[in-house]
Amino acid sequence: MKATLHVLLLSVVSMMVTGDVHLSERGTGPGCLVGTRLAFDLNTTLEETKRLNNEFFDCPNPEPGVPCFFYSHVFKPFFIIEGTVEGESDRFLDSYTFKVVGGGRTRGSVRNYSHEEILNFNSLSDSESSRQTLVWTYDDAPDSFRLTKEGFLLMSNASNRVRWLCQRNSPCGDLTPVNLLDPDFFFIIEVSNRETASSPFCEHTLRFELHAHGFPLDPVRGLFFMQMTMTVIQTILICYIGHTCWRLRQKTVHTKKRDGLDEQDGNQFKAGDVLVKVGSMLHSCFLQLYCIIFRIVQNPMLDHVIMLVVLFDTSTLIAQTFQGVTVRTGWCLSAVDSCLLVFYVVEAVFKILVRGRTYFRKPWNVLDFFIVFMSLLEFTLSLVQSAGGFSSRQASTLFRVLKTLKGARVFRALRLLKAIRFFKGLQAILLTCLQSFRSMSSVIVLMFLFLFIFTVIFREMFNESDPEHFGNIFRTIFTLFQILTLDDWSLIYMTSRDNGAPHIIYFLSLYIVVELFTFLNLFIAVLADNFQLSIRKKRQCKSQKSPDVKEGETQSGEKAVEADLEMSQAELEEEFHQEALRRASSDSKQSKRKIELISRHLQLLAAMDQHMQKYRSQACLLDNLVETFFTDRDMETRSDNVE
Fold first, then answer.
1. Which of 16, 357, 590, 612 could link 594 by a cystine bridge, Cβ 3.0 to 4.6 Å?
2. Of all helices (H) and strands (E), which one includes residue 187?
3. Measuring CA to CA, how many Å separate 521 from each of 5, 229, 447, 603?
4. SS3 for 300?
5. Element (H, E) at 191
6. How many helices (H) and strands (E) does the chain have?
7. CA 94 centroid distance within chain
8. Which of 170-174, 188-192, 439-443, 576-580 shows the lowest per-residue confidence on average (mean pLDDT)?
9. Which of 79, 83, 1 is closest to 34 using CA atoms?
10. Which of 65-74, 384-393, 629-638 has the highest mean pLDDT?
11. Could you give the dihedral angle defined by the CA atoms of residues 397, 401, 406 and 410, in that order, rounded to the nearest 10 degrees?
12. Distance (Å, whole) CA 529 – CA 350
């Protein structure tokens, strides 16, 4: 009885040490020792996972007794052969197969998969992995990996790093968050050496439960968010274009009515002119669309909208630097990033359509295009990996490529520099610093020259007394940069003094006087002088602008007087008619339509009067010419008769 209780107590203790994650374990075969079993070594797995990933994120909502791992981290499991009688354990060094045999969104919905599902979710053969159903793949496994007949990977301690894949058609693919937290999933893992040839005498099989959290946004769903955002932007643009076209239509109709043109006369086309009419309509539509896009690009409101988008995108990038935010809301932040990417693409496309090749002549535009291109490239590779069929080797390679391209996302933070264009003070400071670089370059060269001179001196004289600070050339340069800020220079002096080099104080004093009190202050003086010059230029521009404004006002007044004096009789009559019309409208309170008709009638009367005057002058001129002709002829006849 005591022996049985002792065995049960050791079993409970061993389960507590290994993490209490066993669902079932068994060992069969003639070579298996009595009272031994295969167990999951949770402590070693956690330590190795932290070492490989340099971090460890626990579940936001952990389940008791179930180990939890982050989805994006490499998972390297370790197993032991545990003795339930004596309590001893040894490392399991045999080859084994790693299979996902069950799972669910919640622990209560976990179910066991069928044999066909296990093949689809775990088989690394090309025929199975092309179905987009893989749950996991190997990470940095050797090229000569071994597979079983059904395509299961044979793993060992030398090659046992697992990368969660969760393709689109797998049970953990395209998960959606719950309560704005990242999706999670529960797996049932089966580890067995039944199909290996190296241990035919003892077959071990172990099933345990794992909890994975922090599943990312599926690229196809990210494309859906981009399409929804594009639909919203298209709706806004269509409304704006429709409103603009309606205003242009109303203006055209008003112009035709004012000029007395009939719309039906303009719509009378022959049968052969249908294509010409359609072509002209399309051409006018394209021109109007181009004009509308040009107005949108030139409108300052676009810059303000992009500025708000940039600030919001920057806030999301800052939020992703916190581990708690990344673990809990990474899925939602990725969805927001997909939506914001649409704004950047639309902005770049509109500006390229309007400006053409001149768009790439500005460095700011080149930087924006590079950022948008890298973001689109990263998203496209993720989308291709999610939608297309890849083998396990290709999937592992694509993971490394995407991990490298994620570093390009930091360039999006540079878009915050576009805020400078909205603040004139920041523009003045930046331009002054850039203009001061030429005059400060000589000072910078002198500073670095003396820095290298003192580096050689300190390295040769004090490398033995203080090897921590002056052991090599790079440590010496770093130490001198530190002394340039007067940071802990006294500690450096006391270290060398205690080691028998008290004369370092003279060299430190000389270095501080030359580098800090002379060159650094000279650097600041040059910068301050350039700021003063820029302020003086602004004042001179303002002082020169004020007399020019006065002269312009006087000249405009003189031109107005001359224009009034040179006004023609027709303009005076037109003003008279308008004044009469205003008086009549104020007296009788006629409608706007009647006022327009009366105005048009008066304009026609004035034009008729003008044409009548021209006709009379021409008739008078013609009468004079005829009279002159006949007078000359009579004179010639009389002269002939006299002769």
1. 590
2. strand 184-192
3. 82, 53, 11, 77
4. helix
5. strand 184-192
6. 19, 12
7. 48
8. 576-580
9. 83
10. 65-74
11. 160
12. 42
pLDDT of residue 255: 66
Q: CB of 386 within 8 A of CB of 166?
A: no
pLDDT of residue 212: 92
Residue 428 CA, distance from chain mean position: 27
Give residue 102's pLDDT. Answer: 94
pLDDT per residue as tens digits for the range 243-285: 877 877 777 666 656 655 444 444 444 444 566 666 677 777 7
Closest to 609 (Cα-Cα) out of 597, 621, 601: 601
CB 78 within 8 A of CB 41: yes
The answer to whether 169 and 134 are in contact (CB under 8 A) is no
Decide if 530 contacts 436 (C-beta within 8 A). yes
Q: Is the pLDDT of residue 509 over 60?
A: yes
For residue range 189-212, list pLDDT tens digits in order: 999 888 775 545 678 889 999 999
Q: What is the mean pLDDT of residues 286-293?
A: 81
- Look at the chain and count its residues: 643
What's the CA angle centered on 309, arms 426 and 341, to 5 degrees?
A: 125
* Cβ–Cβ < 8 Å for 78, 45: yes
- Please, are residues 209 and 23 in contact by the beta-carbon 8 Å criterion? yes
Structure tokens at 146: 């071994």
- Tally Cβ neighbours within 10 Å of residue 88: 13
- Return d(Cα 487, Cα 516) in angstroms, integer: 12
Nearest CA to 351 out of 338, 365, 361 is that of 365
d(CA 97, CA 122): 10
Q: State residue 101 phi and psi, 5-degree precision.
A: -110, 0
The C-alpha R_g of the chain, in whole angstroms, comes to 43
Res 491 pLDDT > 50 = yes
